[in-house]
């Protein structure tokens, strides 16, 4: 991702990120909110790690790309277990954001968006249900109907 830290098209997010077939979800939230836990769940269903806890993002031609800082590449924290090794993808296009600091209260919410480095992304809030991780993966595979 070779841009300097002052580059307005690059940032390091306090976020975890996983990818499925080249489509990535960036998972944001406060420390202890479950970013790594959700990433591990998604990985258990077949997603691949991009980055855990800190995610480098860069905006290119209206798309957002994610990768891991070199010092934490291929590592993910499992609270109560330790730091685990994981084969990571080098970079992936971010197509979805999940905010674990807010909880979804609507059964069928209207589409939400967030902006990262000027790139608009669909946004999902935390869902306190067993289907949350599988639903995120299905979103990565097929998108969402309006």
* CA distance, first residue to last residue: 33 Å
CATH architecture label: 3-Layer(aba) Sandwich
State the helicity in percent bands: 10-25%
CATH superfamily: P-loop containing nucleotide triphosphate hydrolases
- Average residue pLDDT: 93
Q: What's the total count of β strands?
A: 11
Oligomer: single chain
What is the molecular shape?
A: globular
The percentage of residues in β strands lies in 35-45%
The stretches of 5 or more residues where confidence is low (pLDDT under 50) are none
Please write the string of helix (H) and strand (E) elements.
EEEHEEEEEEEEH
CATH topology name, in short, is: Rossmann fold
Q: According to CATH, what is the class?
A: Alpha Beta
Query: What's the total helix number?
Result: 2
Q: What would you call the structural class?
A: mainly beta
Report the C-alpha radius of gyration, rounded: 14 Å
Characterize the main sheet: 9 strands, mixed
Number of structural domains = 1
Domain HPr kinase/phosphorylase C-terminal: 10-89
Organism: Shimia isoporae
Protein name: Hpr(Ser) kinase/phosphatase
Keywords: Kinase, Transferase
